[in-house]
Amino acid sequence: MKRNYDVSSFIILALCILFFTLLILAANVPEPAAAMAAFFIGPWNGVWFSGNTLDAVSLLLAAALGAVAAFQGGCFNLGGEGQIYIGGLAAALVLLNLPSVAGMSLWAAAFIAIITGGAMGFISGFLKKAVGANEIITSFLLSGALVPVADYLLAGPLRDPSGNLLATKAVPRLLRVLPPSNLSVSFAISLLLVVAGHFFVNNTIFGYRLKIAGSSPAFAHYAGIDASHYWAPSMALSGALSGLAGFFAIAGTYGRCHVGFSGGLGWNAIAVALIARNRPLLLIPAALVYAALEHGSQSAMLAIGLRFETSAFIQAAALLFAAIQGR
After folding, report:
1. How many of the other CB atoms lie within 10 Å of CB of 50?
2. Where are the domains of the chain?
3. How far apart, in Å, do the first and last CA atoms of the chain sit?
4. Count H helices, E strands: the chain?
5. Quick check: 307 pLDDT over 70?
6. Quick check: bond before 43 cis, omega within 30?
């Protein structure tokens, strides 16, 4: 019997909501009603919070679409966090050194971020095809090797001496949609990318071959499709979208590149992709609920002193429920 993946995805989201409701009730807080209100209403309580929650959705959509691209090609990109980080740093370098004329520096920065992340992903895909190297290990190790270099640059040569942060100077930003929140046009771009990803996978020859090669290499072989030909392209596309998410974070969310700006975005993106069952359109509700859960836990922390560590349970619970539903 064919599994209904749409229903499966919403079951996972419902389980996550139920889990955190029980977690808050079991936290022995003095005002559980206030905690619940902060958890569910806090992320949407006014322009500032709503805009910042939707901004988090935009970052998750771009990064999770990157994770889906790798999964569709039969690969697992474990270097998304580093690709976001290095891609964002590359974008910041362009924005800091290229004059901003008619927004050209933003276009150039986005392009460099895409190329940087794509190159990192391509290396892992190429090594898998050329020498049989496991892309999970190579993507993770490559990112793990480059992140400390980025930290050194941000804490040293690239640091803005006029401020107290381990960060670069302010960079030109994308058009903001709901000031004073951080929401920018990256939200609309991410939505368009998700729709384009859905069309690509389901309505193009290359997308169909990519999906077949990734989901069933044996069937692809009998159909005359060499699954190994799609490893490098899928990993490159995955890295490119992760790099673009880094650009969105720098030029849209923060306005500068600072140490640790990715903040686990790459790992959260994997959880969102698994919740969505690797279907691009389902990334939208998955990212929306995931971002609301994470921001809700932070809102509850500020409102009634809920432990900050509770937000880390979001990723663990989502991955656990996705794994259970995937069996």
Report:
1. 16
2. 60-284
3. 14
4. 13, 0
5. no
6. no
Whether the pLDDT of residue 2 is over 50: the answer is: no
Residue 44 burial (C-beta neighbours within 10 Å; 0-12, 13-18, 19+): middle
CB within 8 Å of 253: residues ≥ 6 apart? 55, 59, 182, 184, 186
* Distance of alpha carbon 263 from alpha carbon 272, whole angstroms: 15
- Vertex 300: Cα angle to 299 and 304 (nearest 5): 125
* Mean pLDDT on 172-183: 93
Token readout for 307 is 């432990």
C-alpha torsion sign, points 197, 198, 199, 200: positive
pLDDT of residue 1: 39
- The 3-class secondary structure across 248-302, one letter per residue, is HHHHHHHCCCECCCCCCHHHHHHHHHHHCCCCHHHHHHHHHHHHHHHHHHHHHHH
Contact in structure between 287 and 274 (CB atoms under 8 Å): no
Q: Across the chain, which distance is largest between two alpha carbons, in Å?
A: 64
| DSSP SS3 for 36 | helix
217/303 Cα distance (integer angstroms):
51
User: pTM here?
Assistant: 0.90
pLDDT tens profile 103-133: 789 999 999 999 999 999 999 999 999 999 9
135-155 vs 104-131: helix crossing angle, rounded to 10? 140
DSSP 3-state of 198: helix
Tens-digit pLDDT profile for residues 215-247 = 888 888 787 888 899 999 999 999 999 999 999
